[in-house]
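> Could you send the PaaX family transcriptional regulator prediction when you get a chance?

Sure thing. Input:
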Amino acid sequence: MADAPQLRPQSLVLAFFGNHVLDEGDLCVYSGSIIDVLGRVGTGEQAVRSTLTRMVNRGLLRRQREGRKMFFGLTPQAARILEDGGQRIWRDGAVNENWDGTWTLLGFSLPESWQRQRHDLRSRLTWSGFGALYSGLWIAPGRADVRGVVSELGLDAHVKVFHARADEATDIGEMIRESWDLESLAARYVAFDKRWSTGPDAGSRDPVATRLRLVGEWLRIIRTDPRLPVQHLPEEWPARQAQETFRRIAEETAASANGMARALLETAPLRSA
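Output:
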């Protein structure tokens, strides 16, 4: 597909397991089957093997030997990640139409010499949907739970979290524009819709590859979308049209992709750890 973004092998592996393994119970998949499927979207065998090894080392996948073959299955941590992704895709969606007016405010003050800790905190806050209102004051719509992030970074003593509502005199639209790069976010949705609106994968006859790339690209966008209240975003916010396109193609390809996957994949029951 022209102008398609380059997806990381780990993202594709997770999308593969989310598409074809997560809802099938405790299964593991032969490494050769995973290599075959990811090869259909241009990922080489060595890149897949290296990625599988890294994901085992990171606690995302489990290895299981069956005879001379190596199989891989999801760990509980990876299953939770995929369930969260499914929540974002199928239930929450990309358009926040039910915002209750609350904000999560996170303030922090770190010693000047803690440059690495400051960088790590800002990176994790951005990933969690926060925007910087000021250098030491970050905000997110709704009641965002960031206690785990703060504790993991060892910054509990340096961070304060509040939940509040904006004063009536506050221009929420302006506050959003100051805290998030709306132009960049909108451009990602427009590009996705342009690539996919004419149909699945430019006429591809491989529904497994089509669905893998579709879900991988969509997750890449929505995982960095803070789900800002749509009533305070520019008119005709492109996430709505992009989501309609995503869900239409996902529905059109679901049955054929699942049927082909059942024929392609060699699986085995995942034994208890």
